[in-house]
């Protein structure tokens, strides 16, 4: 899959948000992101923005917890 990277995109931010993702995970994200085209209705764009915000928040929370628990045994429920 070849995609163009926006001039204001940060590979460092992308890497930190997608730590542990597989190529298939990233391809799915890019496919979903492609759905938010300029012809997409405003309410649909707002939904995508909200979902992305939730995604970013959850990834930051998980990353923080993972760093804090380094070396500790963790059991996921």
TrEMBL record:
<protein>
    <recommendedName>
        <fullName>AAA ATPase AAA+ lid domain-containing protein</fullName>
    </recommendedName>
</protein>
<dbReference type="Pfam" id="PF17862">
    <property type="entry name" value="AAA_lid_3"/>
</dbReference>
<feature type="domain" description="AAA ATPase AAA+ lid">
    <location>
        <begin position="8"/>
        <end position="34"/>
    </location>
</feature>
<dbReference type="InterPro" id="IPR041569">
    <property type="entry name" value="AAA_lid_3"/>
</dbReference>
